[in-house]
């Protein structure tokens, strides 16, 4: 337990009465004593017995650890010769691929900054991120080049896959990743000293204000994240992870593009999620570990009899769930159907580099509804949102986190940074929680009003702003509506302008044309007026109550 020994800390809960801080009960993570180290060098220097780093689930194409580090060196050399320097931003727009980590690790080894974006995003959404982050180059696939071209960007493009003809692509293609990987690594390339506190990643997180914000994370944050992940999977067995979650997201980037490499694990990459492909991949490659989000877990329970008769999942040892705490019914339902598989859970934010709390055994997961114990070297406070007072055990308030994996701040957004991260390094998570007598965190509600659709975060304010641009809409509010398959779906309450006969389908189509599929409005209800408090803030709880009263 990391703490000042002069404080009296309850060994059961981790709570210190003298400063109202909860300390992690897990063994502290070691950070490198060397200040001048980047995340890529740190990972590549870790001793392990692993041989194969990545396997493409569809083609069977694989990269050994030797291939991986040679490719990273070659691509970094090429980028350096192309003028990429410390602090430059490089955009990566790609589905999951065994080459995704090659790009990330190469960029970060130079002290340059990787920014990723969702391949499902529209050209309009991508254009906003480009305008904000100002990347020097973009890595993308031939299929996604049109999205960059439509975003009115004159950004030089590096193609990740050059198997398709590039003759019909109307864009500024400067080279391909395979050409860069064939380049001999150069010891004479321009090298800048990269420090542990330099920026490594710029991931965009949806905010409740509607504007997506760039989360700035340092090499220190990523190293702390890697050490935490390695500590969770230090059993003396071979690990073969199935990569089902998107690599552009903190969950995928943390686990698959960086974290698990340091333990010598093999990562089997699915370019997109499809449950039967995932199951056949587990069988074909004898996968041992499966990270996923709760809706997939529920689908595995509901279809268990058919799944077990069709697929051999005997190699599977662990399922890791993130995105929302699991109920007793889900945990016990899974354990009953898949008796040799343990369920672990994790809680984290983009702003905490995916780290915050976890359950590391089935016994811990059976503390039903918990997000887990605080991650190693992480500290927490439970703060009353009204008074700002830090609260003790079993009291409900906003969860604040502090630790080595916490972000540096939001990209060129000091106002958003200061409202989320205070001067003492505490991150206000926006989650209403309590910590029980044994140090387990329980998430009760969200101060932030993000809708969780299949693990994706959908900001209501962004959709509301879009709805208000419709010529027949006077006012609108968007709320989460419970859904068995997706967790939550965006539902819109709409006030029509006088004389309008706008239909539900017209509202849904209007939004669908302008946003990524996961942000689409799935339900619409028309209302006379949107309930608001005296300061004009939408009373979402009233609308949620109204929407769910008919269930």
UniProtKB/TrEMBL annotation:
InterPro entries: AMP-bd_C, AMP-bd_C_sf, AMP-binding_CS, AMP-dep_synth/lig_dom, ANL_N_sf. Residues 46-411 form the AMP-dependent synthetase/ligase domain. Residues 462-537 form the AMP-binding enzyme C-terminal domain. It comes from the Eukaryota. It holds the Pfam family AMP-binding_C. The keyword Plastid does not apply. Keywords: Ligase, Membrane, Transmembrane, Transmembrane helix. The chain crosses the membrane at residues 89-114, 248-270. The keyword Signal does not apply. PANTHER family: LONG-CHAIN-FATTY-ACID--COA LIGASE (PTHR24096), PEROXISOMAL OPC-8:0-COA LIGASE 1 (PTHR24096:SF413). Belongs to the ATP-dependent AMP-binding enzyme family. This is 4-coumarate--CoA ligase.
